[in-house]
Amino acid sequence: MPGDLPELRASHEDRDRVVDTLRTAGGDGRLTAEELDARVERALSARTQGELAELVADLSAATATKDVLVVRQTGGKWTRAGRWTVPDRIEVRTKLCRVTFDFTDAVITSRTVRIDTDMQHGKLVIVGAPGIVIDADGLNLVFSKTKLRSDSAAADPGLRIELVGTLKHAKVVERRP
Questions:
Q1: What strands lie across the sheet with 68-74, from one edge to the other?
Q2: φ, ψ at 103 (rounded to 5°)
Q3: CA torsion 102→26→22→125, rounded to 10°?
Q4: 3-state SS assignment for residue 22
Q5: Is 23 buried (19+), middle (13-18) or exposed (0-12) by CB count in 10 A?
Q6: 38, 71, 158, 160: least buried by Cβ within 10 Å?
Q7: What's this model's pTM, rounded to 2 decimal places?
Q8: Cβ-count burial of 141 within 10 angstroms (0-12 exposed, 13-18 middle, 19+ buried)?
Q9: Is residue 146 a contact partner of residue 171, using CB atoms and an 8 Å limit?
Q10: Cα–Cα–Cα angle for 171, 173, 177, nearest 5°?
């Protein structure tokens, strides 16, 4: 949510994103049940971006430690699926490994996620839904390829995934649930 436009009207999507953030904070123990209920009620009735920002302002410092997810693995499979909070940045440092990120039920707290890759002899699978745009322009492909949906260029995506880094003998595939 843009902090420089506090009087901008909030959308249903903005309210839902804040409610998901609050529920995650409640699940992590950063909010009591009473605080969670009160903030969710206020979020659902918020009219502006500023009102929503106030509800999560004291949580941003607590979530700063979760802003980067690092995947380091040699061989096998690594998967993040189900209900998980998507950080602002993900680092994938793998060899001979299949990595899957399933965004279907994920809690998305930012409109942009950067996935920094250093993948050798592997496969990166991104499971998304309509409204997710994958930008692979920042990838350096060495004997590698991408298989992304051509219809993923939405005008106003709910989530933009920026892929950067290097793939050597690897592949990126986008799937829909």
A1: 68-74, 89-95, 112-120, 159-168, 132-142
A2: -90, 5
A3: -10
A4: helix
A5: middle
A6: 38
A7: 0.64
A8: middle
A9: yes
A10: 155
User: Where does the chain show beta strands of DSSP type E?
Assistant: 68-74, 77-80, 85-86, 89-95, 98-102, 107-108, 112-120, 123-127, 132-142, 145-147, 159-168, 171-175
* Alpha-carbon torsion, ordered 85, 10, 155, 24, to 10 deg: 0
How far from the centroid of its chain's Cα atoms is residue 117's Cα? 15
Conformation bin of residue 29: beta by default, left when phi > 0, alpha when psi is -120 to 50: left
Residue 156 gets the label, from left (phi > 0), alpha (psi -120 to 50) or beta, of: beta
d(CA 115, CA 68): 10
What's the mean pLDDT when you consider all of the chain? Answer: 85
pLDDT digits (tens, 9 = 90+) for 23-74: 878 777 788 889 999 999 999 999 988 888 889 888 754 444 457 888 999 9
- CA quadruple 60, 63, 65, 71: dihedral positive or negative? negative
Write out the DSSP string of 24-73. Answer: HHHHTTSS-HHHHHHHHHHHHH--BHHHHHHHHTTTHHHHGGGSEEEEEE
